[in-house]
Design goal:
By secondary structure, the protein is mainly beta. It contains two helices and ten strands. A five-stranded antiparallel beta sheet has the order 1-7-4-9-2, with no helix packed on it. A five-stranded antiparallel beta sheet has the order 6-5-8-3-10. The structure holds thymidine-5'-diphosphate.
């Protein structure tokens, strides 16, 4: 499976009419998991890099409900960059995939749907540790 297949861009239906747009995302229907947590990131800017982690347990869908941002996604072998710039699109990020979010427009509101409640201990925040855990790097002598 390619990284693009593992992390597909999702297109949500628009139920809008002359009164405006309406996008509905139902857990385990429009996205591949039940939603346990929602958070959103705003007031970041083009100089900021967020994310910079992989998760042992959580799956995510990222949607820019306003403005735009980019997500750099890697599994340690391949890398893809997805520009999120429409409220009707999102990107799915499964467990154990590294992601960085950056290049936020000043009006960016990045909505994140997560499959888990927050547990800081399932976040892998060092890239070398991530590579070790997915078997792409040997442990060094000091961190056996
Ligand atoms: P962080 O994971 O650094 O944010 P991002 O991945 O979006 O760049 O989270 C920033 C802080 O917020 C950190 O102290 C952990 C806390 N936090 C929670 O308490 N619950 C959550 O669901 C999230 C995403 C973060």
């Amino acid at each position: 499976m390619t990284l693009k297949e593992k992390c597909p861009v999702l297109h949500f239906g628009d139920l809008g009419d002359e009164r405006g747009k309406l996008v509905v995302i139902e857990g385990a229907q429009a996205i591949p998991f039940e939603i346990k947590r929602v958070f959103y990131i705003y007031d970041s800017d083009s100089t900021v890099v967020r994310g910079q982690h992989a998760n042992k347990e959580s799956e995510f869908v990222l949607i820019n409900v306003a403005g735009r941002s980019k997500v750099r996604i890697t599994d340690g072998k391949e890398e893809i960059i997805v520009e999120l710039n429409k409220p009707m699109m999102g990107v799915y990020i499964p467990k154990m995939i590294w992601k960085d979010m950056y290049d936020f427009s000043s009006d960016s509101v990045l909505l994140v749907l997560a499959s888990t409640h927050y547990d800081g201990s399932e976040y892998i925040r060092e890239y070398d540790r991530y590579l070790e855990l997915i078997g792409l790097k040997q442990k060094g002598p000091l961190n056996v």
